[in-house]
Amino acid sequence: VQLQAFGGGLVQPGGSLRLSCAASGSIFFIYVMGWYRQAPGKQRELVADISRGSSTNYVDSVKGRFTISRDNAKNTVYLQMNSLRPEDTAVYSCRMLVDGTYYWGQGTQVTVSS
Q1: Which one, of 36, 7, 38, 37, lies nearest residue 22 by Cα?
Q2: In 1-114, at which residue ranges do the beta strands (DSSP E only) sit?
């Protein structure tokens, strides 16, 4: 199983970005999909995750600004990020629980700066 993430980049404060992460390979069932981030000098943190039944969980700092969603037919998870702030700058990585095993995608850099 491989996870491929897309969508990072440079954006001004207040702007928006949409990240996507698609899983490929031998997949029967994806239980949980999530996005994590790690800023320089900080520990990695869970940004948001979503269950198979679309129950969501967000870190407090992104509530009301970020929205996680998934397309089960495409084995893909999305993270819509609005009202971005400089403190959202980090490497964002996706993780999925696939058939009982966790897999990570490669990170994608998000930089929020004027």
Answers
A1: 7
A2: 2-6, 9-11, 17-24, 30-38, 45-51, 56-58, 66-71, 76-81, 90-98, 101-104, 108-112
Encoded tokens for 102: 């966790």
Q: Rounded to an integer, what distance in angstroms lies between the CA atom of residue 61 and that of residue 24?
A: 31
Contact, 92 vs 79, CB < 8 A? yes
How many Å apart are CA 110 and CA 37, to the nearest integer?
A: 9
DSSP string, 43-58: --EEEEEEETT--EEE
Distance from C-alpha of 61 to C-alpha of 52, rounded to nearest angstrom:
24
pLDDT in tens, the chain (114 residues): 999 999 999 999 999 999 999 999 999 999 999 999 999 999 999 999 999 999 999 999 999 999 999 999 999 999 999 999 999 999 999 999 999 999 999 999 999 999
